[in-house]
Amino acid sequence: MNIDLFPLILYGGIVIAAIIGLLIASTLLGQKRTDHATHDVYESGVVPVGSPNIKISVPFYLTAILFIIFDLEAVFLFAWAISIREAGWVGFIEVFIFISILVAGLVYLWRSGALEWRTEKQMDDREGLVGEGGVVNIKRHGADNSDTHETNTKGSH
Q: Where in the chain are the domains?
């Protein structure tokens, strides 16, 4: 097995030289001045207010993990799509089984409520608000419908 590693070593050397060169150029040409705000945390043009230790709800993490799991499966499907001619019918059946397992897992997660963001209390409160066609009807206190009546303008010239 005779492998010529010279192009790989040359490429690695060029990359390392470019990194070192950019760091040196940044040090030499960069700003040297410091003032009172130099070491302050500053992100996206907004000075942060409050504590950086915020609590994020568990459903967010669960949804993020499920997204990563199901998104990662696309990598396997892309690889299969590239080699579909070589895989033939055996590969097609394997991918069909693979997708069937994914769909079964998704149905299980859906039925078990893992994809639901609302708590039991929120779902109970929502049951009384959902009207015909799935429209959520939020009743507002003190609101009357007198400003929504239509006026008949026919023959009023």
A: 56-129
